[in-house]
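Sample intake sheet
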Amino acid sequence: MSEQVAGHAAAGPLQPMLSGGRDSRMLTGLAAEVPAEELTAWTTSSDTGTTLEELTAARIATRLGVDQRIVSGRHDGFSRDFLDYAQITGHQSSFHVWLMPVARELASRTGTVLDGLGGGVFLGGGFPDDPAALAAGSTPADLVASRFGRLSRYLEVAEELLAPGAMTASPRRAGRTSPPSPSRWPTTPREPRSPPT
């Protein structure tokens, strides 16, 4: 794999997309081993309400000694991002509008972009459900607990990524004495709220 990455270096500087995901970390690590004129790792935000992707990417870039640039969307640019994405995808998708600011930045540069999108599916991360949660006899609550457990896996390493004491301060700010337990999360739909009058 490192030979394949090295083979593309002739096309210009390597520009790996670096998130907190395993596949992008591996690609950035391989790119860092290739003697290149310039290596910049690009990070964006999927705006899911957490900055753990950016924090993880920053830790990896620092460890590898790679220049990292974070390009995030802006509220005042959302309509442009949405329209550009709709045009690019032929109005067939709205899944990754958040990629537009960094895609626009990369379009103005030369080099080979290494994105790793979808690698998590093949390497055991990302979208697949745990087979045990889908096994005969499992309940919808088992599936919900499995999905929330997978989504919150970054909490296990949060103390390594965040400033000292940040994790213990968060529940206090939210008025809790401890982080919420997955067993307390609702597993049945709530009644729809009435629109404000």
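Comment: Confidence is low (pLDDT under 50) at residues 182-188. DSSP finds ten helices and four strands in the chain.
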